[in-house]
Request: fold
Amino acid sequence: MSTTAISNSNLPVHIEVKNLVRAFDGRRVLDNISLKVHKGETMVILGGSGCGKSTLLRHLIGSLKPDAGEIWLLGKEITRMQDQEFAEIRKKFGMLFQGGALLNSMSVGENVALPLEEHTNLSPEIIDIMVKMKTGMVGLTGFEHLMPSQISGGMKKRVALARAIAMDPEIIFFDEPTAGLDPVMTAVVDLLINNLCKKLGITAVVVTHDMASVNRIADHIAMIHKGKLVFEGSVPQIHASTDPLVRQFINGEADGPISFQQSGDDYLKSLFAST
Ligand SMILES: Nc1ncnc2c1ncn2[C@@H]1O[C@H](COP(=O)(O)OP(=O)(O)O)[C@@H](O)[C@H]1O
Ligand SMILES: [Mg+2]
Reply:
């Protein structure tokens, strides 16, 4: 469980989603979602495969536009923003998406340096210092010269994390940051995410379907089911919930209101949808 749970009402709101609606092919994938994330808080978006988690995240980072509703990041509404204005906001957030996507032709250090080279005019010497700082923060001092093919999956996630914090972001968005890791490595990466975000005061939105991760990192949880927000609250609150949907999810039971029947069409679509 997060050690520094935040009593959130006095802190500024860093992210606010208001009545967000998005349909694909006439089907509502996000159905009137509203939520708030306060400064320094870790919000976990929880839900089964295909419930709309990644779609929500892609709206939050401005890569998808909603059919209706608003998204406020750091006090500004982004869904109707011009590209140039959005580029300014974009510099203030980092992301770590499914797959991690390190560039395999570049070393660990070069991968971490990428956002700094793209978004700043800092000299190579300063970038070098910043890269060393960030790799140090994820426990990879001395690994800067290695290539992604030479390091383990868990280390790659840590490099991706170093890259996500390269620009000293105010917000980080994580889509299933521990996907594909074993339970021990998952715990290591969770701990690192928690430590970094708390130490640096970063607001975090973490998409996951893993209850163990939720227990370790969440200050606040939003659970989505079929595009609708079905629960919002703290870790103790989700464990105390009597909602059958929530109970089935946290207990990992096969029988319950969450149906595992999908149409073949949906299944194919979810296979081909990007993360
Ligand atoms: N670009 C798209 N076009 C059509 N359907 C999509 C697209 N992106 C996502 N979907 C559908 O929206 C639903 C939610 O997907 P997603 O947000 O990726 O789920 P999650 O991340 O919770 O597993 C899925 O049924 C998926 O097939
Ligand atoms: Mg997803």
Observations:
- Residues 24, 29, 47, 49-55, 266, 269-270, 273 surround adenosine-5'-diphosphate (ligand 1) (CB under 6 Å).
- Confidence is low (pLDDT under 50) at residues 1-6.
- The longest helix spans residues 183-200.
